[in-house]
């Protein structure tokens, strides 16, 4: 019996090591903490249900939020009940698969009445709520591969909630300068390019995109738009621009003026879908795949970026 147990243990350990060598998977959602009517399900609950399915099937390691975590005006203290009603009760309590680390980005609604710092404070007592500061980094490794994540508080770039624009852009530049990972992923609330309700953010295009290009960032993940998008920049720009803002807030239609702006800038809209949903991201040594999932759990679009 002992030898059988040893054999099973060795097999399990080997399988775990193999999995660890292969990569990891995670989920992104933006624009999710909806105003709720007690007992009434909403689109946020529907998205959560499909996140659970994807997380179970793909063993999601963490959830990365892309801001607007709490509508309409953020939280008002580090023990605001919205952490329960709009987060724990929606994701963690019903779904063990979502009791993983949540890497948090802040959006304009989180900062609206200058209370974003309460979400940082909450993270000091809740181990699954990872928000050490408004801007921060983390690294994931497997085998010989490393993935460097930079979370940028894009709302503070222009509304001066945090540091000044120049200080933050310098921080981003210096942070990316030191990055030596195989993959670099930047996450923020405001998109660079978009054909959604708000359209492209010309401040981000002028101030942030040059830094992303300078440091060969692989992916720029954003929310803010209540839709799901994939865009490629003008020729010479190899960043994959992903918008995953369908976490619960009402989906919005495409903006025709923003569509024309993209054409004028030579930006390619690979996919636009005005629906609620999320993205599941699969990281491997030589490829990263982004899967877009709707409220029925259908993966209606995906793409893969390869690297040698
Ligand atoms: Fe927003």
Automatic annotation (TrEMBL):
Keyword Nucleotide-binding: no
Entry keywords, A to Z: Hydrolase, Signal
Signal peptide range in chain numbering: 1-20
GO molecular function: hydrolase activity
One Pfam family matching this protein: Metallophos
Domain Calcineurin-like phosphoesterase: 26-227
Superkingdom, natural source: Eukaryota
Protein name: DgyrCDS2249
């Amino acid at each position: 019996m002992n030898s059988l147990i040893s054999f099973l243990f060795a097999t399990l350990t080997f399988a775990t090591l193999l999995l660890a060598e292969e990569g990891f998977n995670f989920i992104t959602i933006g624009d999710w903490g909806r105003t709720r009517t007690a007992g009434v399900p909403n689109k946020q609950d529907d998205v959560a249900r499909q996140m659970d399915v994807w997380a179970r099937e793909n063993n999601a390691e963490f959830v990365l939020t892309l801001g607007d975590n709490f509508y309409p005006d953020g939280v008002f203290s580090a023990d605001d009940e919205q952490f329960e009603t709009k987060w724990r009760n929606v994701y963690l309590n019903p779904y063990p698969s979502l009791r993983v680390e949540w890497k948090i980005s802040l959006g304009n609604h989180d900062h609206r009445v200058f209370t974003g710092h309460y979400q940082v404070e909450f993270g000091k007592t809740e181990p699954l709520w990872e928000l050490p500061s408004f801007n921060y980094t983390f690294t994931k490794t497997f085998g010989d591969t490393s993935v460097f994540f930079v979370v940028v508080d894009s709302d503070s770039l222009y509304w001066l909630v945090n540091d000044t624009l120049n200080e933050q852009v310098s921080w981003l530049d210096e942070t990316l300068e030191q990055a030596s990972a195989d993959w670099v992923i930047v996450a923020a609330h405001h998109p660079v390019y978009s054909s959604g309700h708000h359209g492209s953010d010309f401040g981000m295009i002028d101030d942030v995109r040059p830094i992303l290009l300078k440091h060969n960032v692989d992916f720029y993940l954003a929310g803010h738009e209540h839709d799901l998008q994939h865009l490629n920049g003008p020729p010479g720009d190899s960043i994959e621009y992903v918008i995953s803002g369908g976490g619960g807030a009402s989906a919005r239609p495409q903006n025709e003026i923003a569509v024309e702006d993209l054409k004028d800038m030579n930006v390619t809209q690979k996919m636009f879908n005005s629906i609620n949903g999320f993205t599941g991201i699969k990281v491997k040594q030589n490829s990263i795949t982004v899967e877009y999932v709707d409220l029925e759990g259908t993966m209606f679009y995906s793409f893969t970026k390869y690297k040698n």
